[in-house]
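Following the same procedure, sequence and fold were stored together, as reproduced here:

>
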Amino acid sequence: MKIKSILVVIVLFAASVVRSQDWKQLNSDDLFKLARQTAFDGKRTEAREMLREVLSKSKDYHEVRIFLARTYAWDGQYDQAKQELAIVLDAEPNNTEALNVLLDVDMWGEKYNDALVTADRALAAHPSNEDFLYKKAVILKNLQKPKEAADQLSRLLELDPSHTKGIALMADLKKQLLKHYVGLSSGFDTFSKIYSNAFSSSLNFGTTHKWGTSILRVNYSDRFSLKGFQPEIEAYPRIANGVYAYVNYGYSQSKLFPQHRLGGEIFSKLPKSFEASLGVRYLYFNSSTSVVLYTGSIGYYFKNYWVSLRPYLSADVDGFSFSTSITTRLYFENSDNYLGLTLGYGFSPDERRFQSSNGLSTDQINILKSQRAGLAWQKTLPANVILGLSLNVTYQELSVYLGDYTLITSGTVSFRKRF
């Protein structure tokens, strides 16, 4: 039996050697064709071995070296890809395909400043190249320069008015160039016991600045036989490429809201389509009641999906309290059009429903048990209007009867108009 196993290994090894010798006998062109097909079949390591074999015989076969760089880029090995492209561009500084692949490498690696330098170099040599014009527009959009991106697309669409991707990107940029928006949302909560129906609404005004976005908001609530308002100011300043902050302050004299609400968070893009954040929320209700919660998030983009996990952690004399939520979105044409699902457990300071100073202790505000699930849908309409709908179900512990629960059904409709 042992001898049979050894014979099988020898036969397989011999077959592998024969196959290797078979493709090594091919001429450079035929081996290149085989390497391309092998790479497209997902066997990129084997394909690179074949491409190296071609280059050992024909080191100036630039088409082969460029394709070798592409295989590295497909596997996220961007430095190796750039090394191969540098050899080609040293010999042929204006090689169209090498410049095109170099643009892809920098864009896929989210090195947009490097990509912009390459795009300028490529367009200096090939000013009417449609790929270069389109990719420079995409780069400028990612660098938060929508006006410059639109200028590039105008040049592209003069050359090819039917450029499908260019038309779609221009439509998206025109929305970005609208600096202001006004929004109105209205919602309801129905309770299975104890409480009567509650109503809420919010009026927003947002402005895009060179440094980021600012939002003025007024919240209104009608619940617990009380009515109240809470004005808020919110901002999302850009700190660096791929890094921005969230800051928020709200104030109210109504018992339906915290007297002071503060929030801060730093968000950053990470490699491999991840993003992460770290922040804090502070709710001050009165001199004897306040809550500090530490939070963060980890998000991941996959094709048209986005998944984000957000925990909250707080501490008091009795120990730690933990809550969390997970959100998944399926995006359609762009980030304004999506279908979302949220699941959560525990108290969330970003939900305004139970942020009441109406006689609740810190424990009652912060450690009430709850489970929630919600669906959200958002769609762009004509005239730069965005419609949003959401439906949520929450199984919430009662602050007045700990251990007893009420089922809350909530719905919200919102409109936002850009101008």
Q: What stands out?
A: The longest helix spans residues 2-24. The CA atoms of residues 289 and 362 lie 6 Å apart. The chain has two domains: 21-176, 180-418. The radius of gyration is 29 Å.
